[in-house]
Amino acid sequence: MTSEDDILLSDDQGAVRILTLNRPKARNCLSMELMTALSGALARAATDDAVRAVVLAGAGPAFSSGHDLKELTARRNDPDRGRAFYDETMRTCSDLMLSIVRLPKPVIAAVTGIATAAGCQLVASCDLAVAATDARFATPGVNIGLFCSTPMVALSRNLSRKAAMEMLLLGDMVGAEDACRLGLVNRVVAPDRVVNGATELGRKIASKPARTLKIGKEAFYRQAEMPLDEAYAYAAEVMVENMLDAEAEEGIGAFLDKREPQWPR
User: Fold this and answer.
1) CATH code for 210-257?
2) What is the model's pTM?
3) Which of 16, 74, 167, 234 would suit a FRET pair with 82, their CA atoms being 20 to 30 Å apart?
4) Which GO BP annotation is one of this protein's (predicted)?
């Protein structure tokens, strides 16, 4: 396991890279430094051919408690009352979430403890999520006068509108089983199985053809924002290009020949 300034740990388990937020005493809150480190680590994973999937985890008792409120509050003494820093923070956070969605490899959240505010946003931005039985989720900004507007973007794209609005308007904690039922997480496992469970999912995905995964992930998020007729037209174009790819040629040929595919490198 390697360390990046001790705030982000990186560990390769075969084709799966595990990135662990490492500010346990601060409940892994997303300081500018941590968000920058995570963005850089994701960028490196994107271009590393040995990495086929990424797992995001949190060290200690929390996945992430959201933005670093102490860091934000300290900037109220700036001449502009912190406006420039707040703008930089929110843009950095938004860019981080977009980098997860746009990463050409699947990203899986491994959630133990709490995932609140921007920490909940981080989970919602991942492609898949595995949660511990005692994990809890919330967008509690409304309770402190700061509506979770940026977490709302990811949350509203994972949950039904009414479920997302309930979380946003009430700010209450949601247990792991309810989060699974609502669509925020995929699986709920024992606390000592969370990272392994997420890694196992990553390994299974890593066995699939790489370019096909890249094509599929990009297409999924693009079509989701389109009107139905445009989505079908776009998806049809993607299918044609995919059909002409060497991976599809090999995969379909192997299926018809009743043999295991040998994916081209």
Assistant:
1) 1.10.12.10
2) 0.94
3) 167
4) fatty acid metabolic process
